[in-house]
């Protein structure tokens, strides 16, 4: 059987513990400040990024290709010949294309690229499921054959506390942001089947925003068993409150509280609460 590795980029927001648990390799996105750039999660933590947001809003860029190339060399030396690379949506980042070009430096290895068509923890869910399948003895081909089904059953929603950071990142028009701020609209965003971010809905005020995320999760649970990852970005109380509300629900197979990472938090800003959902019915 081929010895294959599952790789994802740090937009996946998985912790090092989860990466290790599912035997996943991570390629870090670069978080760029005026004076220095950092490797996401390796050289800068969520806590540090959020603490510095009031001073400077950094930008993000493609993974450090030198780091990625060295990591592939390491895996090759360990006997890996085949690689499944699960990336942030190609509609939102050039990561997939950059890594595809990098793979051409290794003509003796076999790479398969899987576009998650999403970002953040939903991308991480897909990667974890791939890791689980590999650990259970599934072949390279079997994992690839099942990934599309996993993607179709994975959902993500995040409620923004402010539109400021999307505006600074050029993700929405300034007029839209200004009007939204004036009437205190809180957008809940998701990604569509084409891998593009869209506004799932808008609600007025923080309480309604929290209630809507809860309602969305419960609507999935009403249909059957799910695994739920509650997400927060510098909003521990909100994330904890949502986690406590959901705890003990009979249709939840897995429930955990996770933190939005630096490369995502740069664009969503602080005070966000959301979820990743894997339908398992």
From TrEMBL:
One of its GO terms (molecular function) is lipid binding. Gene3D superfamilies: 3.30.1180.10, 3.40.50.10170. It comes from the Bacteria. InterPro entries: DegV, DegV_C, DegV_domain_contain. Keywords: Lipid-binding. May bind long-chain fatty acids, such as palmitate, and may play a role in lipid transport or fatty acid metabolism. This is DegV family protein. It comes from Holtiella tumoricola.
